[in-house]
Amino acid sequence: MPLYTSLTDIDLVRLLKLGDQVAFTEIFNRYWDKLYLHALKMLEDEDDAKDLVQELFSSLWTRVAEFELQSSLSGYLYVMVRNKVLNHIRQQKTRNTFQEALTLYIDTHQHSVLEYISENELSLALEVEIQNLPPKMREIFELSRKQDLSHKEIASKLNISDKTVKKQINNALKIIRMKLDNTIGLIVVLSGLLK
Question: What topology is assigned to 2-102 in CATH?
């Protein structure tokens, strides 16, 4: 591998176009940190920057046959990062705009939700979400809500701490609430689309 570290970018690109994985690895090692820092500066989010640079290299490898280098490799890669960052920002804006519109719609039409969701549908949706909980969490939740056992009674019955019971019930409630909010939101949107 020391041989590859001494190669120029042009030589590495030539080998890359021949499907040389070691050449690809050398390009990756040579530019990943620089591209990551460039993306991080623009996005200000470590995970998004890492994902974006990883996606860039994945794209480079899968589209190597189409790869035509018109300038320097570093310049080409920096332009790719910039374009990917701009696309990411555009997608985020679109996603945020949609979420804001959906939230506004739900807020202004909250009262009409009751017109579209019967008590039976809500009970059925609740039961589905309870059944989708992880098995231990579901057992604790059902002992609490369906059998009306106290945290202490559940802890004693399952040989776990009161604190664990409380945490599992709180986690179950968060999961169920989130899933039901999504379900109700979807029903509201669909009902609006069907009008």
Answer: Rna Polymerase Sigma Factor; Chain: A (1.10.1740)
